[in-house]
Amino acid sequence: MSSLRIHQVSFSYFDGLVLREIDLFVEAGERVGLLGPNGSGKTTLLKLASGLLHPGQGEVYLGDVSLRKLTRRQMAQKVAVVPQQLQMPFAFSVGEMVMLGRTPFVRAFSGEGEADRWAVRRALELTNTEALANRIFNELSGGERQKVVLAMALAQEPKLLLLDEPTVHLDVNHQIEILELIKALNLESGITVVAAMHDLNLAALYFDRLVLLKEGSVFADGPPTEVLTEDTIRQVYSAPVLVQKHPSADVPNITIVPR
C-alpha cells in the first residue's frame, strides 16, 4: 500500500491558475472521493497525482518519494489511472487490452511471462470479464468497456488507483456495479483509491472521505456527513438542494430543489 501527499501544490495552464496551494494527504488504503464543479481542478489534480503533470509550485509524494524522482516506468508500476473514456483505434481483444496493463513490467525483447499472464487472469476475474476475453474491445457496451479499462489498471497491480469520473455515461446498474467493485478492491486488497466524481449521492454512498474543491482550492474535507451539507453545496455549486439522511445508509442524501 502507498500513501499520497500533495504538499502546497499550485498549477497553471497557459490561460490561468487552476490549483492554488493544495495540501492533501491520503493515507495508504483510504478510499477518497474528489468532488467539485466543472473547472474546479479535479482532473488536473488527478493528473498531478499520476505524474502526468508536474506542479509549478509544491511537491507530490507517493509514500516518501517525490514523483519527480520516479521514471515513467516506475510510476506505472505503482500508480494506475482509469480515464473517463478510453478510445482504442485498433481492434484489440479484451485479453490484449488487459495485457497492456503489464507493459511497465515486461522487459524489452522478452515478452510476457507467467507472472504477467497470472496478473491478467486475476484482473479479468476480479472484474468479472473473463467471458469477454476474446471479444473486441470497441464492440463492447459502455459498461463492459469501463470494466475492461479497470481490469487493465488492475493488471498493473498498483498501490494507488486514480479514477476520473468512473461512472460517466453509464446507466444506474453499471454505475453501481463499477463502484461496488472499486469498494471491494479497496477493502479486500488495500489499494489506495482516489476518484473524481460528479454524482454527490453516489460519492456519499461509496466513499468514506470526500474532498470538495472550489475554484482550485480545497473547500471541505471529511466524511460525507460533514462535507455534503446544504450550506456547503449552495456555496460551491450555487444550487438549491435539500439534504436529508439516506433511507438505508448513514450518509446524506441530496435532493435537487427546482429554482
Task: Give a quick precis of the structure.
With 259 residues, the protein is an alpha/beta fold. It has helices spanning 42-49, 72-76, 94-99, 114-126, 142-154, 172-189, 200-206, 224-227, 230-237, and strands at 4-13, 16-26, 31-35, 57-62, 65-66, 79-82, 160-164, 192-196, 209-214, 217-222, 241-245, 252-256.
Can you offer a commentary on this structure?
The chain is an alpha/beta fold and 259 residues long. It has two domains: 4-78 and 158-256, P-loop containing nucleotide triphosphate hydrolases (Rossmann fold), CATH 3.40.50.300; 88-157, no CATH class. Helix content is 32%, strand content 27%. It is built from nine helices and twelve strands. The chain has helices at residues 42-49, 72-76, 94-99, 114-126, 142-154, 172-189, 200-206, 224-227, 230-237; strands spanning 4-13, 16-26, 31-35, 57-62, 65-66, 79-82, 160-164, 192-196, 209-214, 217-222, 241-245, 252-256. A six-stranded mixed β-sheet has the order 6-7-8-3-9-10, with helices on both faces. Strands 2-1-4-5 form a four-stranded antiparallel β-sheet, with helices on one face. Helix 4 (114-126) packs across helix 5 (142-154). It is globular, with a radius of gyration of 19 Å. The mean pLDDT is 92.
Question: Whole-number radius of gyration?
Answer: 19 Å
3D shape = globular
Q: What's the CATH first level of the largest domain?
A: Alpha Beta
Strand content: 25-35%
The biggest sheet, with number of strands, parallel, antiparallel or mixed sense and barrel status, is: 6 strands, mixed
Mean pLDDT: 92
CATH architecture of the largest domain: 3-Layer(aba) Sandwich
How many helix segments? 9
Assembly state here? Answer: single chain
CATH topology term of the largest domain: Rossmann fold
- As residue ranges, the low-confidence spans are none
The secondary-structure class comes to: alpha/beta
| Separation, N- and C-terminal Cα atoms | 45 Å
**Assigned CATH superfamily of the largest domain:** P-loop containing nucleotide triphosphate hydrolases
Number of strands: 12
Topology pattern, helix = H, strand = E: EEEHEEHEHHHEHEHEEHHEE
Helix content: 25-40%
Q: How many separate domains make up the residues? A: 2
Could you give the order of strands across the largest sheet?
6-7-8-3-9-10
